[in-house]
Amino acid sequence: MLAQLVRVVGSALVLSFPLSLWPAGGTEPGSTVRSVRRTPSPDGFRIAYEWTDAEGALRAIDLPVSRSELEASEMALGFSVAELREFLIGAEIRIREEEGLSALDIARKVVSRISDPQHCRISRDPGRDFNFVMRTNMAGLPGGEAEVARVLAAYRRRWEASRKTVCTRLQAHLKEFAGVHGMEVTPNGIAVDYKKLVRTSAVQLKPIAEEFRRTFGPAKKDILEALYSFVQSIPYMQEPPVEGGRYTAGVSVPLRVLAEDQADCDSKAVLFAALWTDLCNHRTILIRVPGHMLVGIGFPSTEGVTIEIQSTRCLLLELSGPEKTRPGVISLYSAEALSSKNYKYRIVS
Q1: What is the DSSP letter of 115?
Q2: Rg over CA atoms, the chain
Q3: Where are the domains of the chain?
Q4: CATH architecture under which domain 5-78+191-347 falls
Q5: In whole angstroms, what is the distance from residue 38 CA to residue 245 CA?
Q6: Are 280 and 273 in contact (CB under 8 A)?
Q7: pTM higher than the cut 0.90
Q8: Which of 135, 263, 272, 343 is the right S-S partner for 231, CB 3.0 to 4.6 Å?
Q9: Taking the CB of residue 227, how many other CB atoms lie within 10 A of it?
Q10: Beta bridge partners of 319
């Protein structure tokens, strides 16, 4: 097995490479023994996994997956484009009515200020929330068409000026909408709220965490090695941001990862973190480098990659696979990103 160790001295990462380097994804492949068998149960199914770890040892565990919990967890994450559109339209209508900035309100104010309400009557458009109906008898009067054009131009200016107020309040409503759907608004768009997802998933995965504890014993080192190798062995599969018309930012909930036996690095990281949170009370951190995610745990270790975050020394875990590694061994790509401080992190427990 190729070795790559990264340690932190002060604020800098120090890389040492006793043998040769390996690319992003893992070390030399070892044994490829792995099998998955599903058996129906009253509320879902049980899945029997067998896999080999980085040392070539055969491991096995039998896990329950509740169909109702799976469906509930998936409904709690993400939203459809139609849901978002309906929410934004409804929220803007409410905001404009509260602020006196509806199309009807603005049009009436413009007419009362620059024209004659007797000749230019404004009413609500029953078919469209952001329109108004204007009836006028000025078209046939001298200068009437110019007067109508002046009213409409003033209306457009007031409407555009109202957007700042509406957008500021709409942004706050959007944050609430995202939070209800397990997401959060970031400078780059709507993303998964990883802290919330890990913590809610930890509750849903308690029966599975108990199975790991029962199968691999109470020793945290043994559980770490078993859980790490289990999640790492799950086949890698890139998740699309929108699937089945539902936006999830490309993240699968942990129960879906177990049910489908495939996931990308983000989804694997969430699965590991959710189970580890229940199995161990050490600090757990999700670390994002460009295009990839690792997990950091506040676990005492004498070797391997570590990084200090908020005064906690964290052992780094590379879960994407498909190659098998031990905890604390990461790819050269991840090491270079960390060394250049090109990463962000989220403390999830």
Answers
A1: S
A2: 28
A3: 5-78+191-347, 84-180
A4: Roll (3.10)
A5: 27
A6: no
A7: no
A8: 272
A9: 22
A10: none
Backbone angles phi, psi at 114, to 5 degrees: -120, 0
pLDDT at 32: 65
Encode pLDDT of 12-71 as tens digits.
343 333 322 333 433 344 446 899 999 998 889 999 999 999 999 999 999 999 999 999
CA–CA dist 280, 293 (Å, integer): 21
- Tens-digit pLDDT profile for residues 288-346: 999 999 999 998 876 888 999 999 999 999 999 888 999 999 999 999 999 999 999 99
User: CB neighbours (10 Å) of residue 32?
Assistant: 10
Residue 322 in tokens: 């498909």
Quote the tokens at residue 119.
């000749």
Max intra-chain CA distance, the chain: 94
| 129 Cβ neighbours under 8 A, 6+ residues apart | 89, 93, 103
Question: Rounded distance, CA 71 to CA 255, Å?
Answer: 9
Residue 328 and residue 240 in contact, taking contact as beta carbons nearer than 8 Å: no
How far is the first Cα of the chain from the last one, in angstroms, to the nearest whole number? 32
